[in-house]
Amino acid sequence: MSEVKERKPKKVFVDGPISPEKIATSIAHHQVKTNIGAHDIFLGQVRADEINGKTVQAIDYSAHEEMAEMEFHKIREATFEKFDLTCMHIYHSKGLVKAGEICLFVFTSSAHRKEAMEACRFLVEEIKAKVPIFGKELFEGGGHVWKENK
Questions:
Q1: pLDDT tens digits, residue range 89-140?
Q2: Is the CB of residue 116 less than 8 Å from the CB of residue 39?
Q3: Which residue from 86, 82, 107 is spatially nearest to 36, judged by alpha carbons?
Q4: What is the pLDDT of residue 1?
Q5: CATH-assigned architecture of domain 13-146
Q6: Which residues of 106-121 are buried (b: 16+ CB within 10 A; e: fewer)?
Q7: Can you give the chain as a three-state secondary structure string?
């Protein structure tokens, strides 16, 4: 029986949008890991949806951070058990993120592409289904609605 490595919960939330520099730096840090043959990345971006004739200009994300971070940890552990990954990173915005900016960054690495790709998709679907994050869609000219996860 193989030994299960106990991982510490990681901080997932970042204030505001996830910058292109953060994404690029994360990718660059993996060049020294020569056992990796594939990465897969998911970037969630805020859309300027039109709802009832009003255009979304931003989403204000909030969460009960402790509860959400614990759920992220459970999802990470389940993903490491299900897929043969070398490494995984998840970052989600809190606070204000304007239309066109990145609010979710999921990055999986493995020896082979199939594992990295399947794990990335699994992670995104689990996050959307299970993590208690709330988004208030703010309209140009005022007003808001609470975002529905789709």
A1: 999 999 999 999 999 999 999 999 999 999 999 999 999 999 999 999 999 9
A2: yes
A3: 86
A4: 36
A5: Alpha-Beta Complex (3.90)
A6: bbbbbeeeebbbbbbe
A7: CCCCCCCCCCCCEEECCECHHHHHHHHHCCCCCCCCCEEEEEEEECCCCEECCEEEEEEEEEECHHHHHHHHHHHHHHHHHHCCCCEEEEEEEEEEEECCCEEEEEEEEECCHHHHHHHHHHHHHHHHHHCCEEEEEEECCCCEEECCCC
